[in-house]
Amino acid sequence: MSPQVVTRFAPSPTGMLHIGGVRTALFCWLFARKHGGRFILRIEDTDLSRSTDDNIRIIEEGMAWCGLDWDEGPVAGDPERWVGPHGPYRQMQRMDLYRAKIQDLLDRGLAYRCRCSREALDERRKAVEAAGKVFQYNRGMDAGKGCASANHDASEPSAIRFKMPPEGEIVVPDLIKGETRFPADSLDDWIIARTGAAPGEIGVPTYNFCVVVDDTHMQVSHVIRGDDHLNNTPKQIPLFAALGYALPAFAHVPMILGADGAKLSKRHGATSITEYQAMGLLPSAVRLALARLSWTPKIDGRAVESAEEELLTDEQMIQLFDLADCQKSAARFDMDKLQWMNQKLIQRASWQELEPHLRPFMPAGWAAKPDAWKAQAIQATQKGKSLTDMAEALRFAFERPAAFDDKAVEKFVTPAVKPALAEVRDLADYSPEGLEAGFNAILARHGLKTKDLAQALRVALCGKPVSPGIFDTLMLVGREEVAVRLARWI
Predict the structure, then answer these.
(1) What secondary structure does DSSP assign to 288-321, as a single string?
(2) Which 8-state DSSP code applies to residue 403?
(3) Where are the beta strands (DSSP E) in 72-188?
(4) Does residue 176 come out as left (phi exceeding 0), alpha (psi in the -120 to 50 range) or beta?
């Protein structure tokens, strides 16, 4: 094992990047960052029927949006380039290494060629299951019926199976779950390479084989992954030994459930990380909410309790993260809690921090606005729960109302207030001080309350009686555009 901490996130590009995977990647990232180690992104694309370049792009973009930068891995958007000394970092580009290792196992009698057809396997499986047993290749009722001792040569196409130990126990040490034991006779001889197209050809290796070779060649010290992989680990441990590799440390992270304790699904909220981005959530809020799933941070040995303590920064999470503080049982995901965190982090952020995240939700005219205008716009809408809320609240600054709230017009744009609207149209000083002084003078001359004039202005400028503070609203629309929009009401 490498003396340096090295973790990896190794998704399969067979679909969207889901929050369970992002939570695993986050734990790997936090652990590596805490210990001054390296974090690797590796693409496990040996499922040729479902892996696509588009899904790889989604993974790379999703990781980048989440702020989970990798020290080694593919260069986003370029399948032929990578960073790090152990590339390439896509498994289909590492076939020569895998096939050499498989050939070595064949030469040493630790793996064998399997010519069993799908039909023959189905027949044997049906017979075993009819007897009320679980089918295991070369185990139990299937012992001696396969290819384990046939010593097939390379004259016909064949799959390759790994010889598992026939007896004893396989012990999986785990930094979260503790020690788990598996009887060796409960695990069959599994396929490490699919059937090749031609005699003698070693076909595409399987996940459980490739992951062992890669974790060792990339010097991964800690394998942190979802506990749905726990049952793969007893298959992999004998393979580590057969290849002469030392074991990494294992930590299997519990799965994520919905708030009701059921398996996480669409009805609990978004499941793909791209959906969270589209919802206008901050990456920092997503990181924080996912970190809290199965991990209870401790400050001076005491679990965080107050709402204020829960709002950890990345630096605090890195400092406090400890696998020993991760729970063994499944975590419950609460969308309301995520949205609460998001709102709090929006309120705490500076306008400069929020602007790059808000920018994708804004119309094209946003880019041309000066920084002072953007600062005022963001600060005026910073009570929103999400970036999409903020963008919606600022629509009035870019679009004239297409329709007006009839009830609001009747209630607020009264004959008594229209003369005041005319005077607002003619205000020349749009500095904060000048605007406030002019506004108050108009109120005094017409005997109006602030609410009377402010609500009438909101309806006239925005189409509805809802907007940021009235001075912010006027300044964001701008003096010339205010005059144009008020003209129809005077």
Answers:
(1) HHHHTSSB--EETTEE--SHHHH---HHHHHHH-
(2) S
(3) 73-75, 78-83, 111-114, 159-162, 169-172, 180-183
(4) alpha
pLDDT band at 171 (very low <50, low <70, confident <90, very high): very high
**325 Rama class: left (phi>0) / alpha (psi -120 to 50) / beta:** alpha
Place of tokens 């004959």: 415
**What distance in Å separates the CA atoms of residue 270 and residue 278, rounded to the nearest whole number?**
10
**Mean pLDDT, the chain, as a whole number?**
95
Dihedral of alpha carbons 213, 215, 217, 218, sign: positive
Q: How many C-beta atoms lie closer than 10 Å to residue 382's C-beta? A: 18
- Residue 302 backbone dihedrals phi, psi, to 5 degrees: -115, 130
Question: Residue 32 — φ and ψ, nearest 5°?
Answer: -65, -45
Closest to 63 (Cα-Cα) out of 88, 43, 35: 43
Least confident of 61-65, 77-81, 343-347, 408-412: 77-81
Find all residues with CB under 8 Å of 18, minimum gap 6, and list them.
Answer: 271, 272, 273
Element (H, E) at 100: helix 95-107
Q: 77-110 burial string, b = 16+ CB within 10 Å, else e? A: eebeebebebbbbbbbbbeebbbebbeebbeeeb
Q: C-alpha distances in angstroms, 468 versus 4, 289, 384?
A: 52, 29, 11
Give mean pLDDT, residues 409-418: 97
145 labelled catalytic = no
Q: Could you read off the pLDDT of 63-88 as tens digits, one per residue?
A: 999 999 999 999 999 989 999 999 99
pTM for the model: 0.92
Is residue 213 within 8 Å of 98, Cβ to Cβ?
A: yes
Q: For 411, how many CA atoms within 13 A lie in the half-sphere containing its CB?
A: 13
- Please state, in angstroms and rounded to a whole number, the distance separating the CA atoms of residues 191 and 211: 14
pLDDT tier at 365 (50, 70, 90 boundaries)? very high
- Catalytic-role residue among 34, 101, 126, 266: 266
Q: What is the mean pLDDT of residues 452-474?
A: 97
Average pLDDT over residues 435-457: 97
The mean pLDDT value for 47-66 works out to: 92
Strands (E), 101-187: 111-114, 159-162, 169-172, 180-183
Given a contact cutoff of 8 angstroms between Cβ atoms, the answer to whether 282 and 356 are in contact is no
DSSP bridge partners of 112 = 161
